[in-house]
Amino acid sequence: MSAYDELMAFTRETEALAQVAGLLSWDQETMMPRGAAAQRSEAIGAMESVLHARRTDPRLGEWLASAEAPDEGGAAQLRLLRHDHERALRVPGDLATALARLTSHAQGVWAEARAADDFAAFAPVLRDVLRLKREEGAALAAGGDPYEALLDGFEPGARADDLQAMFDEMRPALVALRQRALEAPERAPLCGDFDADGQMRLARELAERFGYDFSRGRIDKAVHPFSSGGGDDARITTRISAEDPFNCLYSTIHEVGHACYEQGIDKAWHLSPVGHGVSMGVHESQSRIYENQLGRSRAFCHFLYGRMRDIFGDIGVADEDSFYATVNRLHRGHIRTEADEVQYNLHVMLRFDLERALIAGDLQVDDLEAAWNDRFAADFGYPVGRASEGVLQDVHWSVGLFGYFPTYSLGNLYAGCLHEAMRAELPGLDCDLAKGDPGAATGWLRENVQRHGGLRTPRETIARACGGKAPGAGPLLDYLEDKFGALYPA
């Protein structure tokens, strides 16, 4: 075997073990008995120890030094493996194991604290998580910015200052749109009997319409919806709200976007570095375009209005136009995952600033809840009522995902670019969407983005799909102004 072949055979086994570790985490969120939490933390820690040892194996460096790529795909494999190997070498094995064990435990503590609206019960374990993430960030940064080093694990090549500039560009237009909308009479939410079985039945139908392959996936319920796995085992979760079925339906469409990305990657690359979404920003571009530009479009709302009336009967909305306006209503609210397209990025900006301050040491955990509440009141104009609507609403920090939040907005930016390019090539798309058939759009995304996996860098992936046009905020801001300017005219 050549050095390249030996490297890829070894990597395939590592990827398979990583899939096992992912299944442990998926089970913890969906089916694991509550009493198994401590034991599961030990199991996840043991798996991370094995994985870290493989990712820092001295043979990897030898193979990478002498391996020759057979083709473009092989060159991408080597690029990604070098990136991951260099990062793994900077993090001590005992730190990687301790983080995996602690974050598995912290996730359960967070869930209980969230249910009890008790940040004080979560703060001690968050302090421990933050301490270890600061250590990890410092090790990865090797004298640079620890937060940026953590960010690189989710969006390779991204720079915190560039993200700040992106937010600074977006904020004025978003705030102006929000202000115009919130000065208008608030539209009422849906009203009806939205039983759980009906919500899950429609959620499964929507997942299939958006191209999710249930022979290689499944849908379960979780406190915080997520997508897990990849290739031939890509699973999703959603959650039920008796008062707001959109929570279930659009969470499902969102997670289907993630899962379809993974299912759509060329099978020749399964269990390899190229066989994953190239970054979380590109991943979020798929989930957000599925959920928003497609799922919340006027055309698709025409179809969804009829299906919801079929399943739930009277839903408290008089006609299709009113339904479309309700789906896309701007409203006061605290929860990021339930936010409209205009205000969503403002939620992300809040988290971006707070977590940068946490990693830098400028903000301490004991002051986090107050800092969150003060920032939210300043940004949104009304107070946070309880911790589950504020600092405890997201799972991310409990599992150590510092640097993840800005990829949501980066995904929105990428989705705006992809939507502009897609619409130019699919002029008849609305006719299909009105019939409940997003297949032309999802097929376009599969061909232009998803099947390539990690073949190219994140920005190159989006630029190639958009005919060579570099990604920027303009298409997203134009889309939001067109859509919400019509819904909320000046």
UniProtKB/TrEMBL annotation:
Highest taxon listed in the record's lineage: Bacteria
UniProt remark on cofactor binding: Binds 1 zinc ion per subunit.
Protein name, per record: Metal-dependent carboxypeptidase
Secretion signal, residue range per the UniProt entry: none
BP-aspect Gene Ontology terms: proteolysis
PROSITE patterns, sorted: PEPTIDASE_M32
Protein family: Belongs to the peptidase M32 family.
Active site, per annotation: 255 (proton donor/acceptor)
Swiss-Prot/TrEMBL keywords: Carboxypeptidase, Hydrolase, Metal-binding, Metalloprotease, Protease, Zinc
UniProt catalytic activity: Release of a C-terminal amino acid with broad specificity, except for -Pro
Lineage, broadest ranks: Bacteria, Pseudomonadati, Pseudomonadota, Alphaproteobacteria, Rhodobacterales
One Pfam family matching this protein: Peptidase_M32
EC annotation from Swiss-Prot or TrEMBL: 3.4.17.19
Gene3D superfamilies named in the record: 1.10.1370.30
Coiled-coil regions listed in the entry: none
Binding site for Zn(2+): 254, 258, 284
GO molecular function: metal ion binding; metallocarboxypeptidase activity
Function recorded in the entry: Broad specificity carboxypetidase that releases amino acids sequentially from the C-terminus, including neutral, aromatic, polar and basic residues.
Cofactor(s) for this UniProt protein: Zn(2+)
CDD domains: M32_Taq (cd06460)
Transmembrane segments: none
